Amino acid sequence: MTSARYIDVKRFAVHDGPGIRTTLFLKGCSLRCIWCHNPESRLPQPELAIHYPKCTGCGECAKFCSCHKITAGKHEFDRARCKACGRCEEVCPSEALELFGKSMTVEEAAEKLLEDRIFYADGGGITLSGGEPLLQSAFCAELLARMKREKIHCAVDTCGNVPWSAFEAVLPCTDMFLYDFKCADPEKHLRLTGARNDLLLENLKKLDATGKNIEIRMVMVPGLTMDEADLRGAGEFLSRLRNVSAVRLLAYHSLARSKFKAVGHPDTMPEAESPNEEALEKCAEALRSFDLDVINSLK
Amino acid sequence: MNYAPFDEIRPELEKQYENAVFSPEECWDEAQLREAWENHKRENPEEERILSRAFLIALILEHAPVAVEKFNAFPGKFRHFDLLKEDLDAGYQLARKKIPGVVTDGKDLQLGIGWMVDRSHTAPDWKNLMRLGLPGLIERAEKGDSPFHKAVVTVYKALAAFCRRVARINGNFVYAEIAEHAPQSLHEAFALAYVLHDAIEFSGEEVRTMGRFDEIYIDFYRNDLKAGRLTRESAKELIKYFWIAFYARYQGKRFGKNFCFGPDFNELSYLGMEVYYELNTVDPKLSVLVRTDMPQDFAELYARCIRDGRTAIVSLNYDVVVAGLIRHGRTPEDAAQFVPIGCYEPAVAGKEISCSGSTHFYLPVMVLSVLDSGREFDSFGDFKEAYLEEIRRVTGIMREGQVLCDLAWKYVNPVPLLSGTFDSCVEKGRDISDAGAVYNTTGCVASYLADAVDSLEAVRYLVYEKKLCTLARLRQILKDNWQGEEKLRAEVLRYAAKWGNNDPRTDDLAVEIAAFVSKLLFNTPNGRGGFFFPSLYGQMVVENGRRIGALPSGRLAGEPMSKNMDACIGMDRNGITGLMDSVLKVDMRQFPCGTCLDIMLHPTSVRGEEGIKILVSLIRSFIAHGGSGIQFNIFDAKVLRDAQVHPEKYQNLQVRVCGWNVRFTDLAPEAQETFIRQAESIA
Questions:
Q1: Region label for B74, one of left (φ > 0), alpha (ψ between -120 and 50) or beta (otherwise)
Q2: Which structural domain range is residue A67 located in?
């Protein structure tokens, strides 16, 4: 049976589509957004995270694995040698070690997602997110088909930077797409996310043509995505689409900064303040002038 | 309504008890009242308790000073100079003489049990009061000639006289009307409910519900609108004047006065909920009787109250409660008429006195007792059997203590003011304290389920599965409050299964304990011709936690207990839906005396219009799948921390404590910490 690498299953997810949902976060992403909120989801392979504030320096991990060492009460980790076997996670008494990227079969995932099914009846359902879930599109397609057999509302949260064939695989069983839109300018997009946006804009147009319900999601980062030109670019592009039910503006925050350190990635998180409700509302107004239905998520 | 706009006069209304100024007109002073009372006692040394109590109540109502409060649509404060309270003490003395061996407030912390004469879970028959009015109640009691009937006539005549006096002193003609006939308008109906409520409470019983608000008052409201006596807006003002009087009594520092809504919702339900939003107060509190067919617009109206901090609202599953009551001996017609008498303790309106706080037992304490017995068990199954057997043993002791209290109540405090509204009491000629109700219930609260379940599971994990320690060693570890065994404790906290995560290892235990407790108490007779009925909830979690030692679950001595059906603080790691999935496995119909789940949400999860719908979805899902009671706190831990530092900025910040609300700033620091800890665990 098909398996996938995942980072988390979040129950009572209320920001990942309509109603009460369970969201499965898959591992691996084809973008490298500098403000990434889930840096532990970027690489496709398993990674050990070390939540330094929780580490008490007890040394239990070092007893099990030579990748860990306690020197003068401080935890040292040899990431290059780590095979991500996950044994150290189990022995850590303070839950400072966490293995991201465990594997789960479609059936295991289905069981997890169905645990909360009684809460989906009132307009909720399940969401596949990540990372970029469509990098594991075969798994997604199988899982979504399984969910559809259970008559569960299914959403896919994607950045769109995947081959169109990945969309085709999940289209039949997806009720709604949550489509990230970072920036209309291809060069700026490259700077902010590590990739040009040609493919994802093309995919968005194609997806729109299928008639599927699309909610656009835009992270508002002061100084990076909230400028007039950015909003105008987004507005012009999005207003040409027909099946966008709403554009949801999300407020950037830097809460995930510690996770960069935890998984040993360079911290690219911008030094920006999280925008408040009014700031988001200004952006919303700018986009509304393009006849878009815009949701201010802080309101 | 010829009164000042509510918002202008609200501060004065909130202090209507505290700042009451008593009129020197038409009253006796303290010396005169005391003399009359002493004379009466001297002249009637052998008088039945109910008659002497009625005399004293009447004496106060007819002659005690009445407050001048012309600004208030609902005046009616009186000075009783503690006479009623002093006589209550005399009642307890009498009870001890009449019922040898009775302990009226029994507690055995070693066994984890307690019992008492519960004077705080009662309610009159509000519908009868509205239908008959004081004259009607007097007239029907006059047909009987027992001491009970005489007492009822005495107190209601005195209450009518009191209303006339209030009318004269305050120029409030509404009060003159309710002395003469059944209420004709919403103002009269509210006034009658208010004076009877206060009179009962000052006579020593706590009135725990004002009944089904929308059902009782809808006809008055409609008739007033039709006759032009009220508009929708002036009705809102009237309700605010009415409700704030209940806040004023205790300033939000007691258990709250319950007003019940539903299960059929009418225009007064909507109006009332609108008022409740505007009033934004910790007291009164509301209970909403929910069926799956609850209209979405009403659901959103009250979910908005909850979301925006008016959290003194419990939702109760109408169908589940009715089914539970029927299973425990109420007729279907009676069960359909339940109201919560207490926080979420259902009882048949006008036919049942729940006394739901009479007895309690703390489920985790029996785990400790089995450990302390020093017995060894070959398997966890044997340990568990011994635990259940211990519950059987201690609840037996508890019931024995309670039966004597049940017998003692009629000597302590008969309540003719309340009993006179009950058809059955008038028919039988017996007070509610003397088995006058149709259903004379004694509630039995099984508390701290999560602590018990997690402790049992920890025993299984530590001793029988992983064999990390023996029972004897565990006993010593708990005596030492886990000191020196921090690593073992961390392992228990992390790896032993915990209630509230949809984990069958603990959930099956919870289901088994719940079924055992319910069956154990099924049809066990109390001392008032009724039965013990179980409930499953845990309150006073900080106060009682202080007195309960370390537990196998990893909980340290003195730490707060788990609240109601909740997980132990921070142990529901799969979020609230995981917690609800666990809770929904327990058949709530086994607990006719009530159960409740407390949910804490972070404000961001219910933000905006979508958030209101999320809240409604949660309630609906819970109700549709057999949940019973559910209530919410919506907190950001950071805000609570700030409120500790700057209480002045958070005067309106409410917390749902258990089945009632208080202002966060009124909580003791330890209780504040408990809420903050929990809020941090969901952040």
A1: beta
A2: 49-100
